[in-house]
Specification:
The chain is mainly α. Helix content is 71%, strand content 0%. This is ECF transporter S component.
Length: 194
């Protein structure tokens, strides 16, 4: 088995993260709709919550394909729980997942600081924007609305996805529940180095 092959334990964690966030994403739909109803672009501030599953899973496991798998499975879970967005969310989930995965690939799955997580979050938001143009009709809006939607979604992705994903995973590390995953193993020194 190579170091990039997923173990059963890692696959199980990806599935758990996907199920958990699939439910969170289902609950998040009405939050997003309500935020949009309160004020224009307020929904874009909360939108990046839909990128978190892939970034959290990749940050913990640190192997190729994890971000894509976790995010796509979470989108599938949201669909199975009766999402208000229907089948289009699978395409949107895939684009968001691909956006994050590309960044981790560019850093060769070796760098996992906040900057990389923030860039992955921005890239996931770009995937969602691509989907918004193709499926949601973002391009039919005025130039101002398009620019504001894109700007607010990208900016908020840094905090809502990047910082929040890092915070969640780091808090889980502190509990000791991730001691056998790469997020912890990569920081440990061999006994002879101590």
């Amino acid at each position: 088995m190579t170091k990039h092959t997923l173990t059963i334990k890692e696959v199980m964690l990806i599935v758990i993260i996907a199920i958990l966030f699939g439910v969170v994403y289902k609950i998040w739909g009405p939050v997003y709709t309500f935020a949009n109803a309160i004020a224009p672009f307020l929904g874009q501030i909360v939108y990046p919550m839909w990128f978190v599953a892939g970034v959290v899973a990749a940050y913990i496991i640190r192997k190729p394909g994890v971000a894509f798998l976790a995010e796509f499975l979470a989108a599938s879970g949201e669909l199975l729980t009766g999402s208000q967005f229907g089948l289009s969310m699978l395409f949107t989930g895939a684009m968001q997942a691909l956006g994050a995965e590309i960044i981790f690939l560019l850093f060769r799955y070796r760098r996992w600081d906040f900057l990389v997580l923030a860039i992955a979050s921005i890239s996931a938001s770009l995937g969602s924007i691509f989907s918004s143009y193709l499926i949601s009709g973002l391009g039919a809006n005025t130039g101002f609305i398009q620019v504001m939607t894109i700007s607010v979604r990208i900016a908020s992705s840094i905090v809502v996805c990047g910082a929040f994903s890092k915070w969640i995973a780091d808090k889980l590390v502190a509990t000791g529940s991730l001691n056998s995953y790469e997020i912890v193993l990569s920081t440990q020194k061999a006994r002879w180095e101590l």
